[in-house]
Amino acid sequence: MLHIVDFELDHPERTEFLEEISEDLSLSRNQRRMFSRFFGFEAFHYDEQAPLAQMTSGAVDRLLARNPRSAAALSHVSHCHTLPAITHCDGESSSILAPFAEQGLEVFSATMNHCATGLSMLSAMDQLLGDADTGLVLIAEKAFHPDVRLIKNTTIMGECAAAVLVRREASRLRVVDSHTQHETRFWQNTGHLDEPYLEGFEDMYLDFACNTLTNALKRFGLGMEDVRFILPHNVNMASWIMIAQILGFDRHKVCLSTIARFGHCFGADPFINLMQLIKDDQLVAGDRLLLFSIGLGATATCTLVQVN
């Protein structure tokens, strides 16, 4: 069974506030109020001058330095990102993965589940790793353009990289199981601004999220009362409050405290929220956690983690 050995985050030091980016994102006064009052956004780590490699190397270097035994056993490295292409294609490996490929490690990118790819990759690593192997899951990309930063009337992107070490040796965080499901109506996204690929997505989003959570719990043989915390993607606060109301569970199970400071950082959000729980010393042995994310396309992944 797979365990999360350790993980690390890295983000730009520079912070932008909602009011400061409203003009760049062409937000109206009412949209600014919506994103602030109802969706819970205040600030975002963002620096257009900081390269992607600065974030990934910052997280990876600290992570491997404090886990030398796992670093020595590193065998597989996956870079998970939402956008299909995030670096120049100038070789067999991207600039993010090239240093690992040069060491003879198995490297690959994954993107098809979009913001849910990082969580989905935990299941893939469970299938790929041998008993003595260690896997590194990198979740990172830049919000490099206003059309990337903003999903209209839904969310605003920040920047944060997550680096996650996994192996079969027992550790504090055990990956028990994972559930993924798709809503294929929204698969086609060429990037053209006039393409109505999100038409209808807002209307089905809550049902899709609730259905995924319900099916995941059924697969895991659990009820919501058995779950201590839900660590969500930070799309917005209002949607998670509504999900809790629809499914009839205490909304305080959902870790929402990082939305105001980070925004939605693509696939890194569940690990941002997990880090916050650890920093706040909120986890005890036996706790069951649901890490949850939805990616455009649409894919939803819910991963059950138990604290040892």
TrEMBL record:
EC number: 2.3.1.180
Gene Ontology biological process: secondary metabolite biosynthetic process
A GO term, aspect molecular function: beta-ketoacyl-acyl-carrier-protein synthase III activity
Beta-ketoacyl-[acyl-carrier-protein] synthase III C-terminal domain location: 217-306
InterPro entries on file: ACP_syn_III_C, Thiolase-like
Keywords: Acyltransferase, Transferase
Pfam families listed in its UniProt record: ACP_syn_III_C
Keyword Transferase listed: yes
Domain of life: Bacteria
PANTHER family: 3-OXOACYL-[ACYL-CARRIER-PROTEIN] SYNTHASE 3 (PTHR34069), BETA-KETOACYL-[ACYL-CARRIER-PROTEIN] SYNTHASE III (PTHR34069:SF2)
Name listed for the protein in its UniProt record: 3-oxoacyl-[acyl-carrier-protein] synthase III
Species this protein is from: Phaeobacter porticola
